[in-house]
Please model this.
Amino acid sequence: MKLTEQESRLLDGEEGEIKAIAMSYLVKLGRAFDGQEMVDITYAHMSSGSALREGEIDYLEELADKGAKVVVPTSSEVIPLDLLHPEAISAPPDIVEEHMRLQVVQRRMGIISTYTCVPFTQGFVPPAGSYIASMETAAIIYFNSVLGAKTNRCGYFVLYAALVGKYPKIGYLLDENRKGTHLVSVEAELKNPTDYGAVGYYVGSIVGSGVPVFQGIHQPRQEDLMQLGAALATSGTVAMYHIPGITPGSRTVEEAFKGNRSEGTVRVTPREMKTALGSLTIARSPQVDFVFLGCPQYTVEQVRRVADLLEGKKISQSTTLWVGTNRMAFAMAERMGYEEMIRKAGGILVCDTCPMLSFLRLDARGKRGKPGPAFRTMLTDSPKQARYAHTTIGCDTIVDSVEKCVAAAVKGEWEG
Model:
């Protein structure tokens, strides 16, 4: 790779051991993918570190003890519990303690403890064309496809990128890799985010790591695009899509392909959507003991919708309802009275975490002498959550709209 004088100084250790280590990892990554140069990044979204993964928080603390600090604005991913209200979800005390320690470490390093999978809803909105480094599939695809920033699925390399403000110019940082590869014809009315998730889950299973270009999507809302992208990145490894008129630089289908020839047209009708959701609905009984909403984490408007649906009702004694969001949306929901409405109905507005990454995981429960799943059947409005929850927390799954989810939480039974 061709390095600038500053980058060479970083690599040679002239700006300290930590930056030299970070730069060496990034150079190795760039060389592995035939990268020609580094670029300056303006922002990073990284793993918080988890007490469920041995050594992660210790490693960050070790770096902090050596003076490591991020040099670009850096937000952080979800953690295994709601650190703001751990008692509300019966989080194990030792895991609470470990993540209180993590919060201190992050503060020392300049990492912002956002604990979110959707940092762009908390003010982290990098401009179109800017280079960034991100993990979390729901965030990556939104950054690329809706905001027009440029990022790869960076994984743990985000930490090293944040420490030096650099990343190799590879993958989706190169314009030639951002061109459309498949045309997708949406021939169905999309009424809610779950419908968008169904489209995404079906299309992702076909295009794999391709870059789909959508026709037939009109005036989607932010939460629709969040659900579409999360599902695309779950059934496939899609990191970018184009919706002409929405994706920056793609006013038309032709501009989205930028001279590429489509590898094929994918038709999505109500039948394909039903098939996609049906593949995730594997419960053997309509009785549901866990309803989870908020994957990706809900916006305050989505929280309001749940509060309105619950007004004057009570959650079934046999069912637990979690509504996942981030701290900024939680604060606004609290101010507006939505959190109280959900709590009075018997539900819990949860922030910071997600079931499939939480202390509910089968491996985490096994280590605590609690083999087997905490819940039998999860009902969710998110294809992504359903796909991973079955294997990570061991429950059967059902996917349906938020209205059907709330109705089932009240009744204790899904009417699907």
